[in-house]
Amino acid sequence: MRINKYIAQATGFSRRAVDTMIDESTITVNGAVAVRGQEVDESDQVAVDGKLVTPQPSLTILVNKPFGYVCSKNGQGSKTIYELLPEKYQHLKTVGRLDKNSSGIILLTSDGNLAYELTHPSKVKLKRYEIALDRPLQPLHQQIIQAPGVQLEDGLSRLRLAKLDDDGIKWEVVMHEGRNRQIRRTFESLGYSVMKLHRTNFGNYKLGELKSGHIKEI
C-alpha cells in the first residue's frame, strides 16, 4: 500500500497532507525517512513525528443533519454535526457539505477513496433534494431552470424539477454536481427564496426513514 494511503487510513489526514509531511521529513518507515510513493505493509513500522501509526478499518456513517448545524468541527459559535457524534466517530471527515440552513443526508468517512469517488468533479453523482419556495414557481421559470439553465457567476446551473404539491411551492430537485449554494443561488437569481432545503439522496446512498440527528453506519 502506498504510504500516503496507509497513513491517511491510520490518522484521518488527507493524502495531500501526508505528502506534505513526507516532504517535511516528519514520517519514517523502519527508522528511515519516508519518500513519496513508497510502498509499505503491516510488517513495517511507520511513524509520524516519532509516534507509530497503524491503519484502522475504513468506516463510513450516514447522518441526517438537522437544520441549524454546520458540517465543520469548528462551528465558530454555531452548532456542529460533530456534537451529534459519539467519540468513535469524531475522527471521520465529511464528504462534501450541507450549509447551516439545510438538512438531510451527509456522509462522514475515513475512506479517502470513497470521498474521492463521491466528490471529484469527474465522478458524476446524483443528488436529490426536497425544497420549499417562498412563492409559487412560475411555469416559465421552471422551464428556464431545467433548460437552458440559469447562468450564475461560476457557470451554468441546470436542475431537474418535479412538483411535490399543487401550489408550486414544494419541489424535488435533482442535480449531478454541487457547487456552493447552487440550488439557492439558482432560484434567487429568478427572484425566489428557498425556505427549506432537505437532501434525501447522495449517489447510491438514501436517507430513508433515518430521523433528524440520527446516525447509521454503512
Q: Which stretches are poorly predicted, pLDDT < 50 over at least 5 residues?
A: none
| Shape designation | elongated
Mean pLDDT: 92
The oligomerization state is: single chain
What is the helix/strand order?
HHEEEEEEEEEHEHEEEEHEEE
**Which fold name fills CATH's third level, the topology of the largest domain?**
Alpha-Beta Plaits
CATH class of the largest domain: Alpha Beta
Structural domain count: 3
Distance between the termini: 24 Å
What's the SSE blueprint?
Elements: H1 3-11, H2 15-23, E1 27-29, E2 32-33, E3 46-48, E4 51-52, E5 60-65, E6 69-70, E7 79-80, E8 93-95, E9 103-109, H3 112-119, E10 127-133, H4 139-146, E11 150-152, E12 155-157, E13 160-163, E14 170-175, H5 182-188, E15 194-202, E16 205-206, E17 215-217
Parallel strand pairs: 6-7, 9-15
Antiparallel strand pairs: 1-2, 1-3, 3-4, 5-9, 5-17, 8-9, 10-14, 10-15, 11-12, 13-14, 15-16
Helix pairs in contact: 1-2
3D architecture notes:
The chain is of the alpha+beta class. The protein folds into three domains: 50 residues, Structural Genomics Hypothetical 15.5 Kd Protein In mrcA-pckA Intergenic Region, Chain A (Roll); 71 residues, Pseudouridine synthase I, catalytic domain, N-terminal subdomain (Alpha-Beta Plaits, 2-Layer Sandwich), CATH 3.30.70; 76 residues, Alpha-L RNA-binding motif (Alpha-Beta Plaits, 2-Layer Sandwich). 19% of the residues lie in helices and 31% in strands. The chain is built from five helices and 17 strands. The strands form four sheets. Strands 5, 8, 9, 10, 13, 14, 15, 16 and 17 form a nine-stranded mixed sheet that branches. Strands 2-1-3-4 form a four-stranded antiparallel sheet, with no helix packed on it. A two-stranded parallel sheet has the order 6-7. The chain is elongated, with a radius of gyration of 21 Å.
